[in-house]
Every structure is written in C-alpha cells, then in structure tokens.
Write a structure and sequence with these properties.
Elements lengths: L2 H17 L1 H4 L9 H13 L1 H19 L5 H14 L11 H23 L7 H45 L6
Helix pairs in contact: 1-4, 3-4, 3-5, 3-6, 3-7, 4-5, 5-6, 6-7
C-alpha cells in the first residue's frame, strides 16, 4: 500500500511548491496550476477512481488554505480527476502528448468554472478581461509544464507499480507442479 502515502506526499509537496516557488515564478501575475496537471496525469495513469480521489484531496487542501468557498476546488478536482481517468485508463501511458492536450482542455474548463463560481456570482461580469488576463495565460503556462511533470509522475508511478507487483508476487501461492 505504498500508493496512498505517495499520493498524500505528492499532494502536500505540490501544494507547498504551488504556494511558494511557483508564486515567485509568476508570469504576468499568473502561476501555473500544477495541481491540475497532477490530477489529470494521475487520473490518466491510474483510472477514474484514483484520479477522483487524488483530485478531491488536492482540491480540499486548496480549499482549506485559500479557497473563497469551501468545497469548490475539491469538487472541481474530483470531477477533473474522474473525467480524465474515465476514458484514458487503458491508453498507451508512454504517450506524453495526449496528457498535454488533456491538460490544455481541462485547464480551460477548470478556469471557466472558477470564473462562474468565484467572479460571476459576485457581480464581476467582465468575462473577456478574465479570459485575456487569467484563462489564457494560465492555460499556456500550465500546458508548457504538462509534459515534463507528466514524465516525472509517469516515472514515479512506474516505480510504485513495480514495487507493488514485486510485493504481490511474494505473497501469491506457488504451484507445486
């Protein structure tokens, strides 16, 4: 059961990096959403259930320490993890360009949902300003980091799977043929 502590550590490390290091590397006042990259990647590698749980955990941590409304990031992370894991569970995981396009698409939808929830409900209706100043730069910045971060997560996932398979084989019954 190495996967649960690894997921937890990954969520915490990502949150710390996203709130410290990435804040210092902001371009045009926008930071990449590495949590979204991790949620999409994890969902694509491990399936909809684990992707949804990963998204729920990452989103809940963001809700606790910086969300406007508690539960918004958790719900969005859950949905993104589930949706990104549903059709892509059996795809060729060494294909690094598919996650790029999925992250690109997910970032646009995620940011649009955040606009509706965080800004439109508070009467800030300047949609084109939000698209120009937040959605597009965040999407580009996040998409640029999608392939290297997916590669890193793919590497760690492969190590964890190999470890789990070796542990599983140790406890399987051996045939005495």
């Amino acid at each position: 059961m190495l996967r649960v502590p690894a997921m937890t550590a990954l969520i915490i490390i990502n949150y710390v990096l996203q709130t410290t290091v990435w804040q210092e590397m902001a371009i045009l006042g926008v930071t990449p959403d590495t949590a979204l990259i991790f949620i999409v990647s994890y969902g694509m590698m491990r399936g909809e259930i684990e992707g949804a749980l990963f998204g729920l955990g990452a989103g809940f941590l963001m809700d606790l320490f910086g969300g406007v409304y508690v539960g918004v990031y958790a719900l969005l992370g859950f949905l993104v993890g589930y949706i990104s894991g549903k059709p892509f569970r059996d795809f060729f995981k060494d294909n690094f360009f598919l996650p790029f396009f999925i992250v690109l698409f997910a970032t646009v939808l995620y940011q649009l949902a955040l606009y509706v929830i965080n800004f439109m409900f508070r009467g800030q209706l300047d949609f084109w300003f939000y698209v120009h100043s937040i959605i597009l730069p965040t999407t580009v910045y996040t998409a640029v980091l999608a392939i290297p971060l997916y590669s890193l997560l793919h590497f760690f996932n492969r190590i964890i799977e190999e470890f789990e398979n070796s542990r599983r084989q140790m406890f399987e019954e051996k045939d005495d043929d």
